[in-house]
Design a protein that fits this description.
Distance between the termini: 139 Å
Strand order of the largest sheet: 3-2-5-6
Structural class: mainly beta
Largest sheet: 4 strands, antiparallel
Strand content: 25-35%
Oligomer: single chain
Mean pLDDT: 90
Helix content: 10-25%
């Protein structure tokens, strides 16, 4: 008997080419969209110390445990730990009220920017919900341009709603007049000009207009019109004028009267009105840095009747402001109608250059309804007692 042994071989059922494959286990998701709902609609959600937004929404969170915190006005803060996995993708979170004896009250207003106070405490704009205790509450709404609204409400049920309508504030006649006065101030850009008897004034110039000299001015504002009788009366409560009319220039006012008027006007408006300096007046009458070199306060030519009420066309009285043509700056009646008081004392000119001169007199400028053409020129000047009143003396304001 012969026994044979073949070393290194093993009997198997495997077939050539067979490879055993290793099975792969499924990889779980790294996170899920988790939906939150909360009974407090205004609640804010914080997850792991990071604010997410509204507590009524869906947010992507990684699998595992997370620290959740909710805050809402009128509710007790809520903190809890949640687990996020395939079986935990929705959470309803209930917050307890801070007060158990009140309700959500919803407010709306026709003025979205209106500010609301509740029981004397500021509470933001007059829209949205507030949690209020049961009982009576005082509500006050304020908004620019509207009358203050005050109401009492009683909170005694859930989801109470209040809608408020605010009325536009009605301006008093005085307020309307002064608002218009302020709006009619014309900005004059500063600059340098030759003041006095410049060449276009020719032989009409008087000695007190000489020598012409250089003046440099800062920017300022000046009235588009002479001060009217309705403006004076709105401030002073009386009208001293001889020729009556709301839109006529006020007259029969002294320089001293003008100071009283300006003081009261500034108290009413919060502005710093004043009389123009003589240099400001002449610079503005000439058209400022837009000047075309006219003899009168004109924008087109040297025809006085186009721009002024004077002795040849006035009929011996004042006329409504702004009815003639304006000058280059859009200023009316700088020539004629009424003489206009300036801040300065009346005095002689110097040939030296001046900067923001305040002069040395109580000067009158511009001519009036009773003046001849020569006295309506932009360089003509005269002085008068600061206490003098006459039916040809008025004023124009500056800022």
């Amino acid at each position: 008997m012969i026994f044979g042994l073949v070393m290194g071989t093993t009997a198997t059922n495997a077939q050539p080419g067979d490879i055993k494959k290793k099975e792969k286990k499924p990889i779980p998701p790294k996170g899920y969209n988790v939906t939150f709902e909360c009974n407090a609609s205004s609640a804010n959600l914080t997850v792991d110390g990071k604010r997410k937004g509204s507590a009524n929404g869906t947010y992507y969170l990684t699998t595992g445990k997370h620290s959740v915190k909710l805050n809402a006005f009128g509710y007790v803060s809520l903190s809890k730990t949640i687990t996020v996995d395939s079986s935990h993708k929705y959470y309803y979170l209930y917050m307890d009220r801070v007060e158990k004896d009140g309700y959500d009250v919803y407010f709306s207003c026709n003025v979205p920017s209106a500010l609301m106070s509740i029981d004397g405490v500021a509470s933001g704009t007059a829209s949205g919900s507030r949690f209020l205790k049961k009982g009576s509450h005082s509500i006050q709404l304020t908004a620019n341009g509207y009358e203050t609204l005050t109401r009492s409400i009683v909170v005694n049920s859930e989801n109470s709603r209040y809608s408020f309508t605010m009325e536009k504030r009605q301006e008093s006649p005085q307020q309307a007049i002064l608002k218009n006065l302020v709006s009619n101030m014309v900005y004059v850009e500063g600059g340098t000009f030759m003041m006095g008897a410049t060449k276009e004034q020719g032989k009409d110039a008087y000695d007190d207009e000489k020598p012409y000299h250089q003046v440099t001015l800062s920017s300022f504002s000046i009235g588009k019109f002479e001060v009217t009788q309705e403006e004076w009366e709105a401030v002073m409560g009386s009208n001293p004028s001889k020729y009556k009319g709301a839109k006529l220039p006020v007259e029969c006012v002294s320089w001293e009267d003008c100071q009283t008027f300006i003081e009261k006007l500034n108290a009413l408006t919060g502005k710093s009105f004043r009389l123009p300096t003589e240099a400001e007046w002449e610079y503005a009458a000439r058209g400022g840095n837009r000047s075309r070199g006219y003899k009168y306060a004109s924008a087109g030519d040297n025809t006085l009747g186009n721009v002024a009420w004077y002795n040849a066309n006035s009929g011996g009285k004042t006329h409504e402001v702004g009815k003639k043509q304006p000058n280059e700056l859009g200023l009316y009646d700088m020539s004629g109608n009424v003489w206009e008081w300036c801040h300065d004392k009346y005095g002689k000119y110097s040939s030296l250059a001046q900067t923001n001169s305040t002069g040395s007199g109580r000067v009158l400028r511009g001519g009036s309804w009773g003046s001849d053409a020569g006295r309506c020129r932009v360089s003509y000047r005269r002085g008068s007692s600061p206490s003098c009143r006459n039916n040809y003396l008025g004023l124009r304001l500056a800022l």
